[in-house]
UniProtKB/TrEMBL annotation:
The chain crosses the membrane at residues 119-143. This is Uncharacterized protein. One of its GO terms (cellular component) is nucleus. One of its GO terms (molecular function) is DNA binding. Its main location: nucleus.
């Protein structure tokens, strides 16, 4: 079963401060013991690469405010994610393999919409456009 933990639009804040704020409800998905304020976890991207991140919370105060810190900026740079792209973190629970996390970027291309699939075919007017995800960015191929 797949559960969406984070679906966030990237803002300048998430890039300048080198962290991604997560909803407080996501803490239940991680095996943090009481009084622990950080945990390392691995997440797989759509290419199969495994990334190591650290989820941190506040030490004091009534609100935990979880954020992903360590590993975050490397992921952003490698994927070419920018302001207005979306970051999606999911948790997959599998009887055979246990719990795993998956992270991917949905790139925002102005009027083209969000690209989160490897290949998207768009049949509009008399032009067929084929969107192919190459590396970290989508490329449009137009067939007449």
């Amino acid at each position: 079963m797949e559960t969406e933990l984070v679906n966030k639009k990237l803002t300048t804040l998430y890039i300048v401060h080198h962290c991604l704020a997560c909803p407080a409800g996501t803490l239940g998905a991680f095996q943090m013991v009481q009084r622990q304020n950080a945990i390392n976890f691995n997440a797989r991207d759509p290419t199969g690469r495994v990334w190591e991140f650290k989820l941190c919370t506040r030490i004091v105060g009534p609100h935990k405010k979880p954020v992903i810190r360590s590993g975050w900026m490397g992921y952003v740079r490698e994927k070419g994610a920018t302001v207005d792209d979306f970051i999606i973190l999911t948790m997959v629970e599998d009887a055979e393999n246990g719990v795993s996390f998956h992270l991917h970027v949905c790139f925002n291309y102005c009027n083209s919409g969000f690209i989160d699939k490897r290949v998207i075919i768009n049949l509009s007017s008399s032009i067929i456009s084929l969107w192919v995800l190459l590396g970290t960015k989508a490329v449009a191929v137009f067939l007449l």
